[in-house]
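Example record

One chain of 242 residues, shown exactly as stored in the release files.
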Amino acid sequence: MTTAVRARLRQEVLEANLAIPQVGLATLTWGNVSGVDREAGVFVIKPSGVPYETLSLEDLVTVRLADGAVVEGDLRPSTDTETHRCLYLAFPSVGGVTHTHSTHAVAFAQARRDIPVLGTTHADTFNGPIPCTPDLTAEQCAKDYEYNTGQVIVDLLGGDDQRAVQVPAALVAGHGPFTWGATARKSLEHAIICEAVADIALHTLSLNPAGPPPQHLLDRHYTRKHGPDAYYGNPGAVGERG
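Predicted structure tokens for this chain:
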């Protein structure tokens, strides 16, 4: 990893972490973002328990992807580091991971329910429900808990990288959402959208809806933003709108 690449990655990870409280996704220090440099075999992540208002570039921790060893930084990495590492190892498409305890997504996780596709707002980003894992077993909690938290997500998706691309989020039962994307920033965007669609879904379910829209409408909304025939947005534009 060149000095320039390292600096860009660290800056992106810092900015993504600082955005977590700004967009209302975390209370206190309940959230973290990481970004990976696969060529260098490392990822950068927020340190454990450091308040966002004091977080700086110097605080970030660089971790070796192969074994989880800290290779740069004076602080302990996030307690969720091994979950991030598990997701990076399982899904080659993933360049960044975000974990939060955002209210509405956590509500679905605590109810052990997938976030259903109830409209096109959801389908714009997620090609299917945001799934919820089974509860971790006593054995999974007793040893390598954080890595096993990632592993239940991997198992939930069948280790399928393409499925991880199409639905870049999962809920860990009784815990909360993990989201991912091609970059640290993209993983944060998916966390924001995950929380928004969870909020909308809860309101919709409270009205006792008849059911989701027709699949062809949902498919149309997903494919106009994703895949070879996508036509949403303008490359390089700032502040894209619908």
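Notes: Residues 3-223 form a domain with the L-fuculose-1-phosphate Aldolase fold (CATH 3.40.225.10).
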